[in-house]
Give the backbone structure.
Amino acid sequence: MPKISYSKTITILMASAAAMLNSSALADTIVIRAGNVILDANEGSIGPAVITVSDGRITAIDRGTGSGEYKADKIIDMPNKTILPGLIDTHTHLSNNPGGDFWRQAVDPVEWETIIATKNAKTTVLSGFTTVRDVGSSSQVMQSIRRATASGIIDGPRIQTGGNSLAIIGGHADVSGFTPHINEALATGFTCTGATECAATVRKASKNGADLIKITATGGVLSQQARGLDQHFTNAEMQSIADAAHGLGMKVAAHAHGPRGIESAANAGIDSIEHCTFADDKSIAAMKANGTVCVPTLLAFIGVKEGLGKGVYTAPVEAKIRQTLDSLGKAPAAMHRAGIPIIFGTDSGVTKHGRNAEEFSLMVEYIGLTPSEALSSATIGAAKLMGLENEIGRLKVGFSADIIAVEGDPMRDIETLEKVDWVMVRGRIID
């Protein structure tokens, strides 16, 4: 009998274990009866319905109470609940927790970040967010968490990750605040200068398993440098990043506060502007012309405001926080009036994970979205931005069974989404 190498044996055992895990997790057929259902945020509530889930996907939707018999391994009755598509947060940092203790990156190993991300993934999914984009993390942390949630090893949302953010040398997302030799020791290797080097860095991120590219197109609030909040990358560098990413089939998300950074990113064809704080008429026109969307992350501004004057942040950071607060929601509101899509994102990690749904009421109050528009931004719009519009964002036969349940009707009261009672991701019930 031929000998099998140790490494091959381990590979076979791991493959068998993964197959058994997936098989056992998804073998059952589940029937869900609900008193009210939202299939599509743009269409509103349809009243009672029965949804059948098998092998992780929605296989049937029957309107009405479904009083007949259903063949299923499990029947879940929720006559007093509204069920709707799982929510999507397109701007999270699962491996981060809020606070101003920037020095922890000098003492906490990557393994600790992985533990933090595991905890925060569970918290996030239990708050009703069944899919997230993670737009900035260390090393292979989020690539590993992405794999673990997809296989069911840990509970968490579906994840797209940008891995390490791309920055200019000394810019937001480059390590700063320490002595020069410590800054160098902690550098991520994802800074670039010039169009050629920036294209190479995009390809490096792709090689390392990123799903999308995240760049810091402007200065940032929480970095330990007082270099302002406008354009960092040159126009040529941003164009190179966008071209290289799109050539690889990847989208680009640009952290951008200042108007010239927003304008340059939009003109380069970058897909989404994150924060959008100080956009002016020229930058809004550039976004409109190029089909760029805004992810406003209003909750992040509320979160950092809560830490002001408490010794949480350093003096340069406090000054930048105060600079942003008077502009909360003004530019995204102007974008909304101009017809630019507003997409749900929170910057969780700057604020406490699990608070994500508080963004909805902020979008209604500060941007002027209706509850239906706000919900659509976190389902249909977010799915489209992530390239997953044929997989998630609606309840539809053939789509992934990403479903949540709440009391009341979020189409009437958006704050209903701040307390989620039941969650299913990829056909798995999370509790």
Observations:
- The CA atoms of residues 148 and 154 lie 6 Å apart.
- The chain has 14 helices and 14 strands.
